[in-house]
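During the no-cost extension, the postdoctoral fellow (Dr. R.K.) reprocessed legacy sequence entries with the updated structure-token encoder. One reprocessed record is reproduced below for audit purposes.
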Amino acid sequence: MAGDVTIKLDFYVETAPGIFEAAAGITLINTNFAFTALIDNMDISLNIAKVNVDAVGVDYCKFGSLRAVTLRLELNNGFRVLLPTINKLLAKH
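Re-encoded structure tokens follow.
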């Protein structure tokens, strides 16, 4: 199975005990993913084949400046490196 999704992420920091403040907001635009889901005797096993972020939109950043191109590159590289580990974790559950 495969699909495209756009995801909005907001990040918060705790500035004092129990007080959270919005730090940054980004949107992952047209994130393409592919996975398999095998069902055997009511047990499901997932395997993620691909995650690729097409574009990143920086909605706001209160602590400096975020570069959308750098975020996209780092996220895509991170997904490529972490997919084997993520799939091993999924296989255990």
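The beta strands are 2-16, 19-40, 43-61. Residues 42 and 60 are 44 Å apart (CA to CA). The remaining legacy entries will be reprocessed before the final report is submitted.
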